[in-house]
Amino acid sequence: MITTEEVCSVHNMTEAKKFDLLKEVIKDYNKKESNLIQILHLAQAIFGHIPPDVQHFIADQMELSISKVNSVLTFYSFFSTQPKGKYTVSICLGTACYVRGGKEVLSKLKSVLGIDVGATTEDKIFSLTVMRCIGACGLAPAMTINNKVYKQVNPNKIQRILGMLK
Ligand code: FES
Fold first, then answer.
1. From the CA of 91, how far away is ligand 1's center (Å)?
2. Every domain of the chain and the residues it spans
3. Mutate which of 134, 144, 152 for ligand 1 pocket (most atoms within 8 A of beta carbon)
């Protein structure tokens, strides 16, 4: 069975080859609706995001309606239908982070980046997402940028953190 790790070597593949790989993934998962989330994860690993043509391909191959595929995609915040920026900034809105100021950090991120949750800046540098508890509640509110965790963030630190990345 094809894994996410194997799929990570797709950078130089043509679009046609990526669709061939996705077809194989869907076949590996027996076209079962119960495997749709896993298939979407691998589709995102192959294409970087899940645009409409990929959604239609998955729906056709799995003999599902496009609205079924789309409803699963839009329900889970870790799926993206838009290309992501170089940096994905994710603020935790789990209970501990929320009560310790996560919401204010999110407001600051939105205003500094000039985008809403789920969007990417025009220069394709930053994407903004929210997440649930990542197990750093003792040092809430927590934020991640790609794989790096920032603890005890507050609105005053945002400009400096993002400025260091640019
Ligand atoms: S609630 Fe944010 S890290 Fe646990």
1. 9
2. 4-75, 87-165
3. 134
Chain-centroid distance, C-alpha 147: 12
CATH topology of domain 87-165: Glutaredoxin (3.40.30)
Q: Is this prediction's pTM over 0.85?
A: no
Residue 100: per-residue pLDDT: 96
- Distance from first CA to last CA of the chain, Å, rounded? 39
Q: Which residues contact 66 (CB under 8 A, 6 or more apart)?
A: 55, 56, 59
Cα-to-centroid distance, 73 and ligand 1 (Å): 24
Q: Which residues of the chain have pLDDT under 70?
A: 1-11
Gap between the Cα atoms of 75 and 67, Å rounded: 12
- Give the model confidence (pLDDT) of 67-87 as tens digits: 999 999 988 877 888 888 999
